[in-house]
Amino acid sequence: MARKRKSRKAKRKKPIRVARRRGASARPSPKAPERPIPGPEAFTKVSERTHVLSQAATLLLIGHHLRGDAAATQARAEATMGFAEFRAAAAPKAVPSDDLEQLGFPTLQPTTVRFPAAALTKAAQLDARARPRLKRSRRDVRAASGTLRETARDFYRDANPQTAAALLEVGLRHPDPLVRVTAAASYPTVAVDPALPIRILEEGVQSHDRLVRDVAAHALARLDPRNPFLARLLASTMRRSRLRPSRTSTIVHGTWARGSSWWQPPSGEFWKYLHDNVSPDLYGAANRFEWSGGYSDAARGLGADDLRTWVLRGGLDGLDVFAHSHGGSVAMLATQAGTRIGKLVLLSCPVHWPKYAPHFSRVTTPVSIRVRLDLVILADGGGQRFHDMRIQQHVLPVWFDHFTTHEPDTWERYDIKSML
Q1: DSSP secondary structure of 319-378
Q2: CA–CA separation, 368 and 111 (whole Å)
Q3: Cβ contacts of residue 247 below 8 Å, gap of 6+?
């Protein structure tokens, strides 16, 4: 018997950890909801997906309002309203009022007040000796549930910098990584010491969940642009392709997506969907276009110059472009540099008007496809919708998910092809 037990023990093996290949795509997030959970009700559950997403949006909006992002966006847009090339129906708001109303977000004024960590833990009735942990136990989940509800009620009862900061402090201890990184994204707006949120964002950048990863990466890039964890997201993973060059359309990926598979020929899921269902002559040769995917104006400017050169060398002037996120900024800058585009399909593109705007005389049909309260765009600090009448805009009945606009299921469910 002893020998048998020993034999069984010998057969037991430690689980093998499979490291994520550098440049590989992150795991897709679950299906995005078609409505948010409004107000304090969003904070009554810490595990249900729609509650978590609504909490994440609320925490990002706290930073957005306290920093004064909305006022800055509107001021930049208003300064250009007299110029014909930037014609708009009205000065755009960074976040549409109807989205804020449906989420139940309260009025919150910008501030320059910063609180020490001890004051925030006291305001949130937390143990100052218990620092937020990166790994969460069941005990943490139970503890977060009650504290989160109470702190959220205080915030909605009287929305001010201190109650907002207390809610962010609790958010750093949340059991869900998405809420932790959104709390960390806004936390430096209200706190003196940014070390803890930066550490949480560095953890988020390494997540296998692409929504967690990209929200964390955009927030970290705004706080600490040279952080070494960001460099790991810029690796290129060139997929082999034996397809011949084509001339009608191409995909331009967004920030951090250079090594992702979804846009790459010949087997990337979005590339294949567009090729088979929307644009049969979608560019699929091995020398397909890519840019660094870096998070800076300089990186996008270099990407635009590379796109212009790629178009000229291939004799592709006038091709259609499907551009995701800041890939749309790259494509718009390319038109400013002289590149002509047929259909410019902007998928979940952040609005930084007029810094990134198309040269309308060089674009035949600009179309914007987006979701409501896009979390990555909130982390980016960009506007949620275009307001120029020359851009056809379609807002899907989907909330929060930055990536759903390049998913084949979304294109089928909402018949996006008919919107182009």
Answers
A1: -EEEEETTHHHHHHHHHHTT--EEEEEEES--B-TTTS---GGGEEEEEEEEEES-HHHH
A2: 33
A3: 281, 283, 314, 315, 316, 319
H or E element in which residue 40 lies: none
User: Which residues are CB-contacts of 96 (< 8 A; sequence separation ≥ 6)?
Assistant: 372, 384, 385
What does the pLDDT look like over 66-81, one tens digit per residue? Answer: 988 777 766 666 666 5
Answer positive or negative: Cα dihedral of 100, 297, 181, 187: negative
User: What is each CA distance from 222 to 189, 213, 218, in whole angstroms?
Assistant: 12, 14, 6
Structure tokens that stand for 252 in this block: 């331009």
Q: How far apart are CA 44 and CA 136, in angstroms?
A: 19
As to burial, measured by CB atoms within 10 angstroms (0-12 exposed, 13-18 middle, 19+ buried), residue 337 is middle
Written as one letter, the residue type at 80 is T
SS3 content of the chain, % helix, strand, coil (to 5): 45, 10, 45
pTM of the model: 0.87
Tens-place pLDDT, residues 18-36: 334 334 456 565 678 899 9
Q: Which H or E run contains 82?
A: none
The structure tokens listed for 99 are 């989205």
365's CB contacts (< 8 A; 6+ apart) are: 342, 343, 344, 392, 420
